[in-house]
Specification:
Number of strands: 4
Strand order of the largest sheet: 1-2
Largest sheet: 2 strands, parallel
Pfam family, one: YidD
Order of helices and strands: HHEHHEEE
Radius of gyration: 15 Å
Number of domains: 1
Function: Could be involved in insertion of integral membrane proteins into the membrane.
Strand content: 5-15%
Keywords: Cell membrane, Membrane
Distance between the termini: 13 Å
Helix content: 40-55%
Subcellular location: Cell membrane
Main location: membrane
Oligomer: single chain
Structural class: mainly alpha
Length: about 100
């Protein structure tokens, strides 16, 4: 698959990543540390989108947010096994691994 086609295919995922990174930088600090789970719901959703794509990542994030309520026990809740063929930049954007 050509590089430009890979970038185009990952564009929706990276748009969602940009939105979540912005949320985490601007809005999330206003709330403080209130999440019952680790990682926080926004971090969980960010990781889920990075590793599983937009549709499944949003689905996993929405399920997590629905579980996060005052009566939840909380605790460590990691995303399902990540996709092995993807890498992320320091800023969080998703790249395809180079073929070897």
């Amino acid at each position: 698959m050509s590089r430009s086609l890979q970038r185009l295919r990952l564009l929706p995922r990276n748009i969602c990543v940009a939105i979540l990174v912005s949320y985490r930088a601007v809005i999330s600090p206003l709330y403080g540390d209130v999440c019952r789970y680790y990682p926080s719901c926004s971090s969980y959703t960010l990781q889920a989108i990075q590793q599983h794509g937009v549709v499944r990542g949003i689905w996993l994030g929405a399920r997590r947010i629905l579980r996060c309520h005052p009566w939840a026990a909380g605790g460590v809740d990691d995303i399902p096994e990540p996709h092995p063929r993807l890498a992320t930049t320091r800023a969080g954007f998703v790249l395809a691994h180079k073929e070897q």
